[in-house]
């Protein structure tokens, strides 16, 4: 009798590493969704990646649809990004002083986004946390409004879920911490509202408008799957905030330089003629390194130390290697890249729709710009409650059938499928070939 692992053939090394990892790290991972808890099975430990492909420690290659959860717009190991990073590393990796690439990246983003000043941090979490502190410091108010299903990183005040009165009672204190470790006092100044619900927003501002420091929203939610803002919704939010002296904080950590070259704002604000007071960025602008940012109106940003009184800092903020990777990535992210992402996205979406329809699996595919996701529910999803009506076991079956055929989807039904400029015909064909059998697996 043998005591071999129960893992399917071809995942022994990943299974062994997962066991080692679990012995020294909670759940064996450094960010929860990587553990495959939502889909079951053994997470693949990736040894290398190039273009559209991941290769795991057992030597299996997968077409990557995670894209590092957004950053890898150009694909993995892009030669020009690699070369720029190698040169930056050769010059030294961190000085704790001002540097050239951070100025260049700041100028690049300020020239593209509707912001006048920017401050770099190391993660999207830090960006939203700092934006909220700045909004409170600038306005002298304490309440923060967010939407259910929008994720802004693991900021205490934003790890809040709404109570059962979500739709009707937008009272301070309607939000309770969504995790142990966040005291009720950290979320009692957070109001949680249903997404795309103008009436709820109007009621919250009518009641508490003079106490609201800011409203923060994902520019287009991507963390409950892709739920586009209803036409005019972001403009309405910007206008409502302005009317009440609150700041409108548009979180473009995921959509920035991804949904379009100008992010989600390029799809609505730039067309409709409004701008957020503050914005947050991450993912693509870090080129696969830990870099993120927040920026906005000059007068608001001037409140930030050392220019103003609101404190904010970071040992590795504006790191020269990370900002070099980000700058090189953004310079390579031309309109042609987004045109191409639209094209391959349309092919993959059509393939998924066809396969799921043929197998009789209820599904809805939603997009904003080049970003899209596949919901395992037959109804259009406009808010978090709708996203939660998905058939999660069907997604798990679909996920594993795709994985077995060499496609690595995000291990959760609540995520966008991230393509890159490196998803060429071979990668796309590999996806299309796998879809019918995966749809059949989901139907069972
Ligand atoms: N905001 C949004 C919209 C995000 O999607 C994320 C991460 O997924 C964050 C903030 C947090 O960023 P990070 O994981 O870099 O802390």
Describe this structure in words.
The chain has 444 residues and is of the alpha/beta class. It folds into 2 domains: 12-64 and 334-443, Aspartate Aminotransferase, domain 1 (Alpha-Beta Complex); 79-332, 3-Layer(aba) Sandwich (Aspartate Aminotransferase, domain 2). Helix content is 36%, strand content 15%. It contains 14 helices and 15 strands. It has a 7-stranded mixed beta sheet with strand order 4-12-11-10-9-5-8, sandwiched between helices. A 4-stranded mixed beta sheet has the order 1-2-3-15. A hairpin with a 2-residue loop joins β1 (46-50) and β2. α3 packs parallel to α10, α6 (198-208) runs parallel beside α7 and α13 packs across α14. The longest helix is centred in the last third of the chain and has 25 residues, at 335-359. The protein is globular, with a radius of gyration of 22 Å. The protein starts with 11 loop residues before the first helix and ends with a helix. Residues 1-7 have low confidence and may be disordered. Pyridoxal-5'-phosphate binds next to α4. One of its GO terms (biological process) is protoporphyrinogen IX biosynthetic process. Pathway: Porphyrin-containing compound metabolism; protoporphyrin-IX biosynthesis; 5-aminolevulinate from L-glutamyl-tRNA(Glu): step 2/2. Homodimer. Its cofactor is pyridoxal 5'-phosphate. The modification N6-(pyridoxal phosphate)lysine is found at residue 283.
- CATH homologous superfamily designation of the largest domain: Type I PLP-dependent aspartate aminotransferase-like (Major domain)
Bound molecules: pyridoxal-5'-phosphate
**CATH top level label of the largest domain:** Alpha Beta
Main β sheet profile: 7 strands, mixed
Q: Cα-atom Rg, whole angstroms?
A: 22 Å
The tally of strands reads 15
CATH architecture annotation name of the largest domain? 3-Layer(aba) Sandwich
Which residues form runs of ≥5 with pLDDT under 50?
1-7
Strand content: 5-15%
Under CATH, the topology of the largest domain is which?
A: Aspartate Aminotransferase, domain 2
What is the global morphology? globular
- The overall number of domains is 2
Number of helices: 14
The sequence of SSEs as H and E is HEEEHHEHEEEHEHEHEHEEHHHEEHHEH
- Gap between N and C termini: 34 Å
Helix content: 25-40%
Q: Provide the spatial order of strands within the biggest beta sheet.
A: 4-12-11-10-9-5-8
Pfam family, one: Aminotran_3
GO cellular component, one term: cytoplasm
Catalytic activity: (S)-4-amino-5-oxopentanoate = 5-aminolevulinate
GO molecular function, one term: transaminase activity
